[in-house]
Amino acid sequence: MVPLPASPRTSDEAAQCLSRLMRALDVTTDAELARALGITPQSVNGARKRREVPPAWIQACAAQTGVNAHWLFFGRGPERLPEAGEGELPAAPADCETDLVTIPLAEARLSAGTGSLEVSGAQEGGYAFRSDFLRRKGNPRRMVLMRVSGDSMVPEIFDNDVVLLDQGQTDITPGRLYAVGFEDAIYIKRVDKLPGKVVLHSANPAYPPLSLDLRGDGADQFRVIGRVLWSGREYR
Fold first, then answer.
1. How far apart are CA 54 and CA 65, in angstroms?
2. Which of 30, 145, 153, 169 is found 20 to 30 A from 49 (Cα to Cα)?
3. Distance between CA atoms of 81 and 99, rounded to whole angstroms?
4. pLDDT tens-digit map of 85-129
5. Which pairs from 59-67 meet CB under 8 Å and 24+ separation?
């Protein structure tokens, strides 16, 4: 896994990145770009002033348009990857030892404890993974990285670990690890599905299983964000 910079660091690089976003989304003004990304025009103006383009915008644009996220972020590689089957990417070029795919690190923080959703003002960038590894796991175009807070999944996942999610894998396989949302909370848990409810299991025995009733209004408040495919941590 190769760390990548959080965002372009010069005004030219930031402007070029925003220009690529506009091209991919077929818009011509900052206001249109903001509408396409579901953000405010002030956010776009702030990104220009800070010379930083949030990786979450790249991920959102790539998901909407199918444009290559690596091209959006860095201006390198093909603008649009050839169509491939579910979870597939083109084979590595003959002149490239390893084909890497950049997965953006979202601003939101998943909670492995209380289930709260934390939003960080700092843009943390993304990481590059081998494409053959990602293809084995799922659909790279639907993947995103998120940082975990809390200790409910210790010793499997620790506070501040990063998890790789495939947002295309939302059908629950009992016992697998998922990021799920209920009301305004996001949890990372092992999930069991029973008639009329789901049960969220923690790895830490200090946290009892959490049963969520999906009958009535509960069904509209519960969502599967994606399956957890991988986790990693930094040592300090």
1. 17
2. 145
3. 13
4. 434 444 444 444 558 888 888 866 555 665 544 444 444 578 889
5. 59/104, 59/106, 59/144, 61/21, 61/24, 61/25, 61/36, 61/37, 62/141, 63/141, 63/142, 63/167, 64/25, 64/36, 65/24, 65/25, 66/141, 67/24
**How far is the CA of 15 from the CAs of 4, 19, 44, 63, in angstroms?**
19, 6, 11, 21
Return the number of other C-beta atoms located less than 10 Å from residue 211's C-beta: 11
Complete DSSP assignment for 17-84: HHHHHHHHHT--SHHHHHHHHTS-HHHHHHHHHHT---HHHHHHHHHHH-B-HHHHHHS-S-SBPPP-
- Cis omega before residue 155 (within 30°)? yes
Beta partners for residue 165, in sequence order: 144, 228
> Which has more pLDDT, 179 or 8?
179
| Residues linked to residue 231 through DSSP beta bridges, in sequence order | 163
Query: Long-range contacts of range 217-223, CB-CB < 8 Å, 24 or more positions apart?
Result: 221/182, 221/183, 222/180, 222/181, 222/182, 222/198, 223/180, 223/181, 223/182
pTM confidence score: 0.56
